[in-house]
């Protein structure tokens, strides 16, 4: 424990002094520390008041150290260098324990967020820095360690591991059906409010495509509400605004909590697409990244949940 701490001045005074001594100018020190010359001059004046001696001889456009100033500089320079080195080591250690994970907006909001708390409770020394975007290029940025994207498994330069497939079915809030006609057939959908997702960055399976794959005429049904992200569509469905298309695995926790139901039972469409965990080929993953990747694969272990449908 440090004793007699009262003799120590503030660190920002010492930093201003060290830079001003090196550059022999209060104005140059201000530019270096991104503060005004007046701010540097004030810190030096308060430092001189603290030690009750002059540390600089002021010239017209430059300054030079007094004997006491040189004595102070000889003492604080190695101390500041040690502090910088320790700080750099700590930052590097924290950087090492941070895993940068990117995912689509839907996966981030609906699949990852409900699970992150449990991960952090089990791995308190690892920080997941999550980036959410429907632009693949942003998710595959150079500084990302892992990414979760929708596709068919082909991303050149990346090792892709399938997390879960794509099974799509209608979902709505339980209260939405109160006082409305039952949905006992595809044709019955035309009597209901349908929520559509329109996004320039993402090729979504929309109502027209879903109906076409079910062998129904898509022109008989017209969406009554449109949003630009999938999480918004699910929120709209939960709020009782209509029926949205639910992606299996992404809406599981809403189905389990009965926030949403499947009004058409087992009716669904399965595509060739899925959600994949991407890692760059040829790169040895850091220990922390490997832990996160293993956790993601464990969380998706129920990816065969909809296989029997």
From TrEMBL:
Residues 9-66 form the HTH lysR-type domain. PROSITE patterns: HTH_LYSR. The keyword Zinc does not apply. Transmembrane segments: none annotated. GO terms for biological process: DNA-templated transcription. CDD domains: PBP2_GcdR_TrpI_HvrB_AmpR_like. Keywords: DNA-binding, Transcription, Transcription regulation. It holds the Pfam family LysR_substrate. One of its GO terms (molecular function) is sequence-specific DNA binding. Gene3D superfamilies: Periplasmic binding protein-like II, Winged helix-like DNA-binding domain superfamily/Winged helix DNA-binding domain. Belongs to the LysR transcriptional regulatory family. This is LysR family transcriptional regulator. It comes from Roseovarius atlanticus. The lineage of its organism: Bacteria, Pseudomonadati, Pseudomonadota, Alphaproteobacteria, Rhodobacterales.
């Amino acid at each position: 424990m440090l004793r007699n701490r009262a003799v120590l001045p503030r660190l920002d005074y010492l930093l201003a002094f060290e830079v001003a001594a090196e550059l022999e100018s209060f104005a140059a020190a201000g530019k270096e520390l991104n503060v005004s010359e007046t701010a540097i001059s004030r810190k030096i004046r308060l430092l001189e008041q603290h030690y009750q001696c002059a540390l600089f001889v002021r010239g017209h456009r430059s300054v030079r150290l007094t004997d006491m100033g040189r004595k102070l500089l000889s003492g604080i320079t190695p101390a500041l260098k040690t502090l910088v080195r320790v700080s750099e080591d700590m930052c590097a250690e924290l950087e090492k324990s941070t895993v940068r994970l990117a995912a689509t907006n839907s996966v981030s909001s609906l699949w990852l967020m409900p699970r992150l708390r449990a991960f952090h409770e089990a791995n308190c020394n690892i920080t997941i820095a999550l980036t959410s975007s429907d632009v693949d290029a942003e998710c595959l940025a150079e500084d990302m360690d892992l990414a979760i994207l929708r596709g068919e498994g082909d991303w050149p330069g990346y090792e892709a591991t399938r997390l879960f497939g794509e099974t799509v079915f209608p979902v709505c809030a339980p209260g939405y059906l109160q006082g409305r006609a039952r949905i006992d057939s595809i044709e019955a959908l035309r009597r209901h409010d349908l929520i559509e997702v329109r996004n320039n960055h993402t090729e979504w399976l929309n109502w027209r495509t879903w109906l076409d794959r079910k062998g129904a005429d898509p022109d008989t049904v017209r969406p009554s509400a449109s949003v630009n992200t999938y999480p918004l569509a699910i929120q709209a469905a939960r709020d009782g605004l209509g029926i949205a298309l639910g992606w299996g695995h992404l809406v599981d926790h809403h189905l389990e909590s009965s926030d949403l139901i499947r009004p058409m039972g087992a009716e669904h469409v399965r595509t060739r697409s899925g959600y994949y965990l991407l890692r760059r080929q040829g790169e040895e993953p850091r220990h922390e990244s490997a832990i996160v990747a293993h956790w993601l694969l464990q969380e998706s272990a129920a990816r065969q949940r909809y296989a029997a449908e």
